[in-house]
Amino acid sequence: MNLQAATSPARPWLSGMREAIPLLGGYVPVAISFGLVATQAGFNAWEAVIISTLFYAGASQFLFVGMIAAGSPLWLVVAMTLLINLRHVVYAPNLAPWLTSSRWWGWLMHTLTDQVFALAHARLPQLPEAQRLGWFTGAALLAWAIWVGGTALGALAGGKLVARWALMGEILPFALPALFLVLVAPRFTSRRWSLALSVTIASSLLLTLLGLTNAAIPLAAICGMLCFQVVKFDTAMQGDHHE
Amino acid sequence: MSNALWIAVLAAALGTLLMRLIPLLWMQRRLKRLGDDAPEAMPQWLSLLGPLMVAAVFGVSLVPVTAGPLAWLATIIGMIATLAVWWRTRTLGWPVAAGIATYGVVVTLFG
Fold this sequence. Notes:
Chain A is an all-alpha fold and 243 residues long. Chain A is built from 12 helices and no strands.
């Protein structure tokens, strides 16, 4: 697998920011939508920005403000928010082998969203050890800043923006599936992996279409893992298990 | 916001941070205990789950913002364009740019 964009040894954080740019196409419209939804739910612009800054977890933020607006008990709101974010527990351990000994990594885990994980999981193993912290800091902080900035924009002027740039709001989010395709494609390295990945993609697509967006990611990944464990190809067993 | 609501915000934010942080600390301790052969020290189920979670995120993201025949057509053509450019360049940025451009052209032309 080689997604090698030229990484500047002197400025790995700049390379990280550059490689995180495709994430923004997905983040900006959703962040603007969140800012708008939060203000419509009764939060002011500052409160929406603080929620985006502290949570930094798209789906659960929408759920949080939606349940608050609906008058749900606070303990249930917190419990449901955490339940949706439960999938995040497997992200950091998958990156751990490539993280250096810096104490900053702990703080940077706040920025580990689905998208940042997907990008870092593909890129960190390819980077020299000395560049990893800088690269991740650049990529993750840019994505976080855009999320918070997008929320502020949505809270202050979301209605006007949505009305004026409706088509851009429809086109830009395509950056996310395009990016994920580029991250997933190199992992089709064997028939066994190809089948497991295909089952996962099809399952998550189907579950999302059925309205189970939040459960789709963990459930589909479990389907793919079961497929990987159960289906074994006679001729390709050797060397089939690799990243 | 009321005080109770602020506490709820802080509790949910702190819980989310801990769900991202504690597994890292656990894995780092495990790696330290098992030695430097890092990737092999990872439990097999966890090393499988990483790429599969990315694939699952991809599947979820495939559903267009505004679902409809045109959006699905644009998604399919956009995916083909993305894959074709990735196949030729093996880079990160160009395939994404080509995919967005193709998606935009299809939506604009047929919309």
